[in-house]
C-alpha cells in the first residue's frame, strides 16, 4: 500500500468530480420533482417547452461550475502539531472544521452505487462533543481511504494510551476476525415477508394523494373506486393488490438496505458492513454502545430471526438517532455479540411491573373514540345505523381491552446487580439492556393524580437516549433509585 503524506493539504480523487456533479443534480431533482412531474403529466406549448429546455441547460452549466469550484475548494490534512484533523470546504463561504484526535469516535466507510461504478470510497469521521457530528470525505481511492482511516484511528489511540501492540490498533484491516457471520439474500427475503409491510402501503397511498392534490388530477385519479361498494368484490381485490404491492416494497427495501450484511468480531471491535444502494462499514468498540436492544416478532422468532439495535453515545436525546440496526441474526450470534459488549453475564433477579391503574388508564383513553362514535350514531340515526355502529364499536372495545391487557402483561423491568432490562411490545417484542454504570441520571415524574396513590414514572437517561417506565409504586422503586444513584456516583468504569 502506498504511503500518503497527509500532513500536506490533500484533495479528493479527480474522478470524484463526477460524484460532486451528480450529487448537485440529485438535490436539484429532489427539490424540483414537482415541476418535472408537471411537465410529464400536462400538455405544454412548444414555446414553454423550449424555454424549459434552455433553463435546464443553464442550470446544468451552473451546476458544473459549482461542482468544479467545490472540488478545488475541498481540502483536508492532518495537523500533527495541533493534534487535529483539518477539513476546509465551501464555495461562496469558506468553512474550516478542526477535529481534535481525542474527539474522533470512529472512522467508517460508505459507498453508494455511483461510488462503486467510479471506484471511490467515502470516509465518515464520527466526532463527539461538537455540533458537527460527522465529517465526510466522499471521493477517495481505496488505498488512500484505508490509510487515512488507519492513521486517524492510530492517532486517536495514541491520545488514549501510551503503549499498544500493533495488532490491537483500531482501524487496521489486515487482522483475522475471531468469527464471521453473513446474512444471505434468502434470510433477507424472510425478513421482508415477516415485517410490517403496511409502511409500503402508506407510501403508495401518500404518493397517490400527493399527485392527485398537487396537479388537480381528480378525474384521472379518483378518490373512490367507481361503481363498487366498499364491501364489494372490486374493493376487496383492490385492497389485496395494495397489500401485495406494499409487501413487495417492504421486501425490496429490506434487501436493498441490508444486502450483503456481514458481522466480523475482532479482538477490540465488532465490524458491521451492509447495504446495496449505500454500502456502509462501521467498526464498533465496546465502550461506544450505550443501549443494547433485541427486537423480534412471533413469526421471526419462529424462524430464529432477531434484530439488534445498538444505540451509540450521542448528544441527541433520541434512541432512533446514532443507532445501528442489524437484522436477521440467529440466537447464537445474538449471544456472541452480547458477550462482546457485556463483560458481565446478565442475571435477572427482580422484576418490576406497572401498577394496574396503568392498564385502566390505557383502556379508558382508548374508549374515547368509542364514546364519540356512539354519540354520533345516536344524534344522526337517520344517516347512520345505530345497531351497525354499535356492533362495530363493541368489537372495537373487546379488541382494545385484549390488546392492552397483553401489552400490560408484557411490560416489565428486570433488575440485577449490573443491568436494567426492559421488556415491552406485543407483536414487535423488545428487550432493552443497559448497564447501570452507563446511566447518566434518573428522572422521577409524579403527576398530581398519582401523588395520592404514591405512584411515579421513571426515566433512565444515558448518552444514547432515554428508557421510560410508567406507573410504579414509589415505595417499591425507592431502594432501586438509591442503588442506581450510588452506582452512577461511585463507578470508576469508563462509560464512553
TrEMBL record:
Name the record gives this protein: PH domain-containing protein
Q: Which PANTHER family match?
A: UPF0699 TRANSMEMBRANE PROTEIN YDBS, UPF0699 TRANSMEMBRANE PROTEIN YDBT
Q: Where are the transmembrane segments?
A: 12-29, 49-72, 188-210, 230-256, 363-380, 386-406
Concerning Pfam families, the annotation shows: bPH_2 (PF03703)
Specify whether Cell membrane is a keyword of the entry.
Answer: no
Query: What's in the keyword line of the UniProt record?
Result: Membrane, Transmembrane, Transmembrane helix
Tell me what organism the protein belongs to.
Salinimicrobium gaetbulicola
Per the UniProt entry, the signal peptide is: none
**InterPro entries membership:** UCP026631 (IPR014529), YdbS-like_PH (IPR005182)
Q: Which residues form the YdbS-like PH domain?
A: 76-151, 267-330, 408-483
Amino acid at each position: 500500500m502506498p504511503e500518503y503524506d497527509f500532513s500536506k493539504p490533500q484533495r479528493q480523487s479527480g474522478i470524484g468530480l463526477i460524484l460532486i456533479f451528480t450529487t448537485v443534480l440529485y438535490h436539484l431533482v429532489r427539490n424540483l420533482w414537482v415541476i418535472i412531474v408537471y411537465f410529464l403529466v400536462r400538455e405544454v406549448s412548444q414555446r414553454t417547452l423550449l424555454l424549459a429546455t434552455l433553463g435546464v441547460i443553464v442550470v446544468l452549466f451552473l451546476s458544473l461550475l459549482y461542482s468544479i469550484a467545490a472540488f478545488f475548494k475541498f481540502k483536508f490534512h492532518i495537523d500533527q502539531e495541533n493534534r487535529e484533523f483539518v477539513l476546509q470546504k465551501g464555495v461562496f463561504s469558506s468553512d474550516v472544521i478542526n477535529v481534535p484526535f481525542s474527539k474522533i469516535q470512529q472512522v467508517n466507510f460508505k459507498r453508494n452505487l455511483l461510488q462503486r461504478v467510479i471506484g471511490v470510497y467515502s470516509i465518515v469521521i464520527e466526532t463527539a462533543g461538537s455540533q458537527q457530528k460527522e465529517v465526510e470525505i466522499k471521493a477517495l481511492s481505496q488505498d488512500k481511504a484505508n490509510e487515512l482511516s488507519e492513521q486517524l484511528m492510530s492517532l486517536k489511540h495514541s491520545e488514549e494510551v501510551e503503549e499498544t501492540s500493533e495488532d490491537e490498533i483500531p482501524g487496521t484491516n489486515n487482522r483475522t476476525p475471531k468469527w464471521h457471520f453473513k446474512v444471505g439474500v434468502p434470510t433477507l427475503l424472510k425478513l421482508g415477508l415477516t415485517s410490517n409491510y403496511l409502511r409500503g402501503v402508506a407510501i403508495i397511498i401518500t404518493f397517490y394523494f400527493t399527485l392527485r392534490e398537487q396537479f388537480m388530477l381528480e378525474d384521472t385519479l379518483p378518490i373512490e373506486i367507481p361503481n363498487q361498494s366498499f364491501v364489494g368484490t372490486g374493493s376487496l381485490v383492490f385492497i389485496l393488490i395494495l397489500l401485495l404491492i406494499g409487501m413487495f416494497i417492504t421486501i425490496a427495501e429490506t434487501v436493498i438496505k441490508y444486502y450483503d450484511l456481514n458481522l466480523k468480531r475482532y479482538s477490540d471491535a465488532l465490524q458491521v458492513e451492509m447495504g446495496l444502494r449505500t454500502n456502509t462499514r462501521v467498526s464498533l468498540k465496546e465502550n461506544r454502545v450505550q443501549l443494547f436492544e433485541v427486537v423480534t416478532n412471533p413469526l421471526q422468532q419462529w424462524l430464529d430471526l432477531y434484530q439488534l439495535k445498538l444505540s451509540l453515545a450521542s448528544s441527541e436525546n433520541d434512541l432512533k438517532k446514532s443507532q445501528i440496526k442489524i437484522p436477521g441474526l440467529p440466537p447464537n450470534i445474538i449471544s456472541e455479540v452480547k458477550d462482546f459488549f457485556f463483560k458481565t453475564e446478565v442475571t435477572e433477579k427482580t422484576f418490576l411491573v406497572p401498577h394496574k391503574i396503568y392498564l385502566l388508564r390505557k383502556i379508558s383513553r382508548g374508549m374515547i373514540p368509542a364514546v364519540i362514535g356512539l354519540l354520533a350514531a345516536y344524534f344522526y340515526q337517520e344517516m347512520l345505523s345505530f345497531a351497525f355502529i354499535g356492533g362495530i364499536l363493541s368489537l372495537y372495545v373487546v379488541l382494545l381491552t385484549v390488546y392492552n391487557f397483553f401489552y400490560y402483561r408484557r411490560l416489565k423491568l428486570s433488575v440485577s446487580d449490573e443491568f436494567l432490562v426492559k421488556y415491552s411490545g406485543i407483536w414487535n417484542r423488545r428487550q432493552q439492556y443497559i448497564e447501570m454504570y452507563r446511566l447518566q441520571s434518573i428522572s422521577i415524574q409524579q403527576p398530581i393524580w398519582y401523588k395520592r396513590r404514591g405512584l411515579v414514572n421513571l426515566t433512565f437517561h444515558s448518552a444514547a437516549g432515554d428508557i421510560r417506565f410508567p406507573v410504579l409504586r414509589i415505595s417499591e422503586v425507592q431502594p432501586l433509585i438509591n442503588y442506581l444513584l450510588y452506582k452512577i456516583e461511585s463507578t470508576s468504569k469508563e462509560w464512553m
